[in-house]
Design goal:
Two copies of one chain form a homodimer. Chain A is an alpha/beta fold. Chain A has eleven helices and twelve strands. Chain A folds into three domains: about 5-45, Orthogonal Bundle (434 Repressor (Amino-terminal Domain)); about 60-160 and about 295-320, Response regulator (Rossmann fold), CATH 3.40.50.2300; about 160-290, Response regulator (Rossmann fold, 3-Layer(aba) Sandwich), CATH 3.40.50. The structure holds a DNA duplex. Chains A, B: This is LacI family transcriptional regulator, repressor for deo operon, udp, cdd, tsx, nupC, and nupG.
Chain lengths: ~325, ~325
DNA sequence: GGTATATTTGCAATCGATTACATTAATAAC
DNA sequence: GTTATTAATGTAATCGATTGCAAATATACC
């Protein structure tokens, strides 16, 4: 590995000059600058980022904590994160927790061990171990699309989940639906509560009774969508419209309903949440809420970098606008169903 | 930030002892070891990974270079990579190139600048800039599911693409199909050629003439699938069976054909490649080739770690077995179509 | 008990950068 | 031409660890 010394030798200057020529070229005369560049070129020198990080105390990396990489929605966020991070000269460390707290603590620990300068959290769990909890204060953290549970309020980039489900609910109510089912993802998160609140709110003003019994599910997966569809259709008072709390669930629901011979939307309307890519290409295309995932990922980078740099945040919560996409999986109620 | 000095102070020992107590506990007496642990506990000390990396020359990170994060197939590989890496104490840096060579060079450069110890490449392009090409020799690289073009032969973990398309072709020929279309992804890659070879081979033995004209497409995307379907159906001699070179393309093809009123598989059979999750849940479920993406990702980590550690590889190419999934998007030829 | 050997510990060099401070060279001012 | 400023460079300390070597301590052996 060629080090700065080799460049020094070739250019006939000190390490200080080499370092300056590369990081603060304006501090070095044009003549020697050129000499250094040539020496760098010849020797194929690459500064050791780690060494420089030790000295400067900045790793120029961010770590992204994902509950489950196989959810395509997260990929859109991560893509935005990766892009923005790169533009700012940061690299992205990836950590898939698979829902395991131990794994989560390790990943969050990357910031504590100087491997990363900040953490972007795509889940709602408190990412530090009990031991490290007091250290969390010093760690730049921002969560995206989820709100971190716990005493400390971390900055968050989120969707207006409440308003989004309100508009979905209104959309379905306008079509005449009165009997609803909900297939939820993880039920202990804030976004679950927010989404539920939006639905309940519309029901209240429309005089539709809400019943805990109409909620099934408990994980954001296609299989849960299938299971949920079966569970809802087995009820004596089966719904004519189903809220799926993400598009993966909706995919499973649509698939399973069709398999049961139930037509969408003629018999049952199905709506999703997130707008993953395939949602537009299934049969029927899914009515869903479009989250600006890419932009939210980008914004998360800006915010966490702001925290890292010590710039005070204007606000701790940033609410991004949703967009309801009325596609063909929802339609007028079928009174004969 | 608490450093080792603070622990020294609390435990009343030297930095050497602290370092040893943490990395090589057996070199330290039980008594002082406990004292050090207690001091670590009290102070909330976390060793600075970067500092240790500078000294040891190992960053304990791998960088993954992905052409496009939004392709769900890559996520399965990455998930395998992430898991295996974590088990080995490595962390994963993510780089999305978006097909830009400049970006690719930067990402590959992470290994040259000691940010990562090795590179896992999910694309077929040569990842180094012309300038760095000679440095590539020193960089542990392995490619997964693609073979890197260029003079140097990098180790590769790949599917038996040739045999896989052979079996797809046989599957369709057995159903009586004689008129085929192919919607390709990137055409300049080795896997494209391998897959094509498999198809051509079956055609040759079955007496089916092959025609470059039956190949359309040029990118692995849903939209390309739609476009390809339209292109193929506009031909005077339109096919009754379509090979899509990945599942994203197949999704678009299925969607578009159905929109054109063409029934699958009654009128046209469609087969994909990769077996992404949703392939099983679209209508009709997709006949496709299952790649053990997760395992291939895992294996890639093992191989690149072997290179890093200087253990000679038994073989430079590892071919993983495919699995043909005959689902409902393929069926007997319709002579009246 | 005395010597040989093994176990623990500490000192100080080192990894490859960055940077405060000092020094030298160049330019400006009069 | 001399002095005051500014620009360019170098020396050496530093970041926070790891580790070779030596010193100190403990254990084994006769």
């Amino acid at each position: 590995m060629t080090t700065v010394k080799e460049v020094c030798r070739l250019a006939g200057v000190s390490t200080a000059t080499v370092s300056r020529a590369l990081k603060n070229p304006e501090l070095v005369s044009a003549k020697t600058r050129e000499r250094v560049f040539k020496a760098v070129q010849e020797s194929g020198y690459r500064p050791n980022m780690l060494a420089s990080s030790v000295k400067t105390g900045k790793s120029n990396s961010l770590v992204v904590l994902v509950p489950n990489l196989s959810n395509p929605f997260f990929m859109r966020i991560i893509q935005g994160i990766e892009q923005a991070a790169h533009e700012q000269g940061y690299s992205v460390l990836l950590g898939d927790t698979q829902g395991e707290p131990a794994r989560e603590h390790e990943i969050a620990g990357m910031v504590l061990s100087n491997r990363a300068d900040g953490l972007i959290h795509l889940d709602h769990s408190f990412p530090f171990s009990a031991n490290d909890a007091h250290l969390a204060e010093r760690v730049p953290v921002v969560s995206v699309c989820e709100r971190i549970m716990g005493d400390k309020e971390f900055p968050v980039i989120e969707l207006d989940n409440y308003a989004a489900t309100r508009s979905l609910a209104k959309h379905l109510v306008n079509y005449g639906h009165k009997k609803f089912g909900i297939i939820a993802g993880q039920r202990d998160s804030q976004i679950h509560l927010d989404r539920l609140a939006g639905i309940k709110d519309v029901f209240a003003t429309e005089g539709i009774s809400f019943n805990e019994d109409m909620i099934v599910g408990g994980a954001y997966s296609i299989e849960m969508g299938q299971q949920g569809a079966r569970d809802l259709m087995a009820k004596e008072n089966r719904p004519t419209a189903i809220f799926c709390f993400n598009d993966d669930i909706a995919l499973g629901t649509v698939f399973e309903l069709k398999r049961m011979g139930i037509r969408i939307p003629q018999d049952v309307s199905v709506v999703g949440f997130d707008n993953i890519k395939v949602s537009a290409f299934i049969d029927p295309p899914l009515t869903t809420i479009d989250q600006p995932a890419h932009d939210m990922g980008r914004r998360a980078v800006e915010v966490v970098l702001q925290i890292i740099k010590g710039v005070p945040l204007k606000r701790n919560r940033e609410i991004f606008p949703y967009n309801i996409l009325e596609r063909e999986s929802s339609g007028p109620v079928n009174p004969d169903f």
